[in-house]
Amino acid sequence: MTLSRREILAGTAATAAAATLPAGAAKAQAKRNVLKVVPHANLQILDPIWTTGYISRNHGYMIYDTLFALDNNLKPQPQMVENLDVSADRLKYTMTLRDGLAWHDGTAVTAEDCVASLQRWGKRDGMGQRLFAVTDKLEADGKNTISLTLKRPYGVVLDSIGKISSNVPFMMPKRVAETPADKQIEDTTGSGPFMFNKANWKPGNLAIYEKFKAYAPRKEAVSSAAGGKIAKVDRVEWYTMDANTAMNALMSGEIDYWEQVTPDLIDLVKKAPGVKVENLDPTGNMGWARFNHLVAPTNNPMVRQAIMKACNQEDFLKTAIGNPEYYKVCKSIYPCGTTYETDAGFVNQNVADAKTLLQQSGYKGEELVILQPTDHPVLNPFCQVMAEQLRAIGMNVKLQAMDWSTVLQRRASKDPTDKGGWNMFCTWWIGGDTVNPLTGVGFGATGEKGWFGWASDEQAVKLQDEFANAASPADAKKAATALQERLYANGHYVNMGMFFVPVGYRDNVRGMIKSPVQFFWNMEVV
Amino acid sequence: MWLFILRRVASTVPVMLIVAVVIFAMLRLTPGDPAVVIAGDQATAEQIARIRASLGLDLPIHEQFVTWIVHILQGDLGTSIFTNMPVSTLIGQRLEPTMMLTLTTVIFSVSVAVPLGVWAAWRAGTWTDRLIMMFSVLGFSFPVFVLGYLLIYQFGLTLKWLPTQGYKSPFTDPLGFASTIVMPTITLGMIYIALVTRITRASVLEVLGEDYIRTARAKGQVERKVLFRHALKNAAVPIATIIGIGIALLIGGAVVTETVFNIPGLGRLVVDAILRRDYPIIQGLILVFSFTYIIINMLIDIAYTMLDPRIRY
Asked: What is the pLDDT of residues A306-362, one digit of tens each?
């Protein structure tokens, strides 16, 4: 048999096509199983108990599991726990673990692991410290049962163990959880739906998570952090890049998902073909301008009141966020739309009253120092608007420009303003951190032992305790409302309103979860 | 020559020591605290103090310095405060992209700039010369990131010829490497081309006025040989100098280029480390950069002897 040149060429082309097609199909198949993401920050710290950084928290959710988790209504639901038994006197909580829970190394999750994990968390986290202050005993009762005995009834046991944001009480193997709380863990073994590929971790560039095939998800439908965590892709890749580069990569289809589209780029991204922009965070972010309660002139409650009266929330939001679709005037210290939302005690803008109050306060034109993080796209304009509003009532404002890292350091100073101290700095909390009087570290008023600004108010502390010990939801609501009134009356901070940072994704990505925290289970690329 | 090389290598020790002292002091004098960044926004002062103590940042500065220097002398650049990974590992992960970007930029730039400079000198005073010099001024004045984003817009988003970001290793994916390195190389090379073109033009122009050039031409030597064999060879020392100095400039430019094109190189590593105050990485990287710079200068000095036999050490 002889073959003509044409036949040989045709055969070669057919062979090449046959070889190419399956390869192409396989490539497409493989591509569907990888979700390429640009997260909101660079993952540098792998221990979500050692730091409160949100990116480490999100990393924690990828690889660890929790005993309880908040659902869409911010109510704690069992996650690793199968059965919960609370004694009639509300002093003993008995939690039985689900069957089939395993660590990434294949060993079974035990109650001892969970006890050690809770103990480590309790040394770091504010809510954890409160819980352990009322804890008499926490022990493993057999392989699968955790027993928590309290000294007195405590109303937010499950809210604490199931808290959604930093520090989240993630469960770790006992050998890992026994690492001192002030030392970073090195072993990333978890029991969550994904496993961390530490060998290929390139900090500042790439973090890879592989599907944990032995993970046994709950049967319930996914609901925020609660419900069945089903990993629908084999691999999630987190790429670190700056905002403009992320935008380009999303538009060109090189990445599938961008966790936080910065306000200035939203309109551009929205116009790109094949790309969608959506707000997935129902509780948004709460803008704060924190007072220093130790240093003049903001150590004077009347000056703080005058400043609050000088401020118009919408001005901050309009300038920093721009598009009303992504901000909300919110007079509550708790995110608007959540259980404890209330307008009680909010200080509305009244420039004439603010000027009068400032005069009555004895303010004599002392310099008011605001720490301005020029590298932050939202906080920088917040500070600039704040300065203008305070100048309008006759205050001598000094904006000190610096990067965010320097703000974090400078705010620790209790010195007077002429020796490196400060009067105000702008910051924000994710809504999930401020949903109740205890989750919000900034709500604390324990003076110099407390959060930066060092507000001191025994009445506020008492109201937080009342909330913690509330016997009914109505009592809890009452205490939360009273706390809000008290914080506004004491000039705790300036509420700069609520804003939302949307996600951007290719239109073939499905299964995003609405939540204050970004989760990657349930997501797929079709 | 060998004595010269030995002497130069030995002289790096005191230079590196001075660099180490300056860097260490500067970092400790600038505001910022890694413990604060680690602790996060919700941490209290007490928690931050505990982290600071666990990292040894509460020790007196001289003690911290001695510990660091002792480790350096043992070949240990330290451990990142944040990632808990050895600095040498982190540098190792990032070395290849930066080296490749620098290499492609130098090759591309020199291949373009030297002929352009020679041509401008040969056509001195003409429109060609003015056009090349205008291009050169433009190259200096065009910000790196603007050019980068323009290229991305045109070739990445509009024409879709090239990926907008990322890096592929030439050892594992040569085609991927070629497609990801083109735009960064052009972006980073623009200033370098401008610099080398100007210096080449000036040097060659000076040599073209020499007697031996006139003699070569009088002998009937073809113009190409006059330019490249006689003029360029004799103008090579200042050109080699500027190429060497330019490599140091490239390291600075790489910071921006790597950010715009998301190349995981040393430039981005140093920026991330500075923003977070990850002292061991910053210190380690600056030592590496300084060492590289010293070595490049030494290589240029050695190159002089090859380019000009009259130079002897």
From this structure: 999 999 999 999 999 999 999 999 999 999 999 999 999 999 999 999 999 999 999
Of A182, A186, A254, the CB nearest to B50: A182
ipTM: 0.82
**Residues B31, A402: C-beta atoms closer than 8 Å:** yes
* Bridge pairing between strands A145-150 and A92-97: antiparallel
pLDDT digits (tens, 9 = 90+) for A447-503: 988 889 999 999 999 999 999 999 899 999 999 999 999 999 999 999 999 999 999
Q: Which amino acid is at A359?
A: Q
Type of residue at A415 = D
Chain-chain contact of B37 with A405 (C-beta, under 8 angstroms): yes
pLDDT, tens only, A92-139: 999 999 999 999 999 999 999 999 999 999 998 989 999 999 999 999
- Chain-chain contact of B156 with A248 (C-beta, under 8 angstroms): yes
**Interface membership of A254 toward B (CB under 8 Å):** yes
Residue pair A46/A55 in contact by the 8 Å Cβ criterion? no
Query: What is the dihedral sign for C-alpha A481, A484, A488, A489?
Result: positive
Cβ–Cβ below 8 Å for B36 and A412: yes
State the DSSP H helix or E strand holding residue A150, giving kind and residue range, or none if neither: strand A145-150
Which residues sit opposite A235 in a β-bridge? A34, A210
Instruction: List Cα–Cα distances, A123 to A119, A420, A448, B147, in angstroms.
Output: 7, 31, 19, 51
Q: Is A200 on the interface with B (CB under 8 A)?
A: no
pLDDT at A16 over 50: no
Across chain A, mean pLDDT equals: 92
Name the DSSP class of A336.
Answer: T
Question: DSSP characters for A314-333?
Answer: HHHHHHHT--GGGEE---SS
B-facing residues of A in 34-63 (CB < 8 A) are 42, 44-46, 50-54
Q: How far apart are CA A190 and CA B288, in angstroms?
A: 37
Chain B CA closest to residue A55: B40
Q: A408-414: long-range contacts at Cβ-Cβ below 8 A with a sequence spacing of 24 or more?
A: A408/B33, A408/B36, A408/B37, A408/B41, A409/B31, A409/B32, A409/B33, A409/B36, A410/A371, A410/B31, A411/A290, A411/A371, A411/A452, A411/A453, A412/A452, A412/B33, A412/B36, A412/B45, A412/B48, A414/A294, A414/A295, A414/A448, A414/A454
Q: Which of B149, B156, B277 sits opposite A405 (nearest CB)?
A: B277
Interface test with A, best of B164, B179, B180, B256 (most A CBs within 10 A): B164
Q: Taking the model in full, what pTM does it have?
A: 0.86
The answer to whether the beta carbons of residues B205 and B118 sit under 8 Å apart is no
Non-local CB neighbours of A148 within 8 Å, separated by 6+ positions = A92, A93, A94, A95, A135, A137, A138, A157
Residues 123-182 of B with CB under 8 A from A: 149, 152, 156-157, 160, 163-166
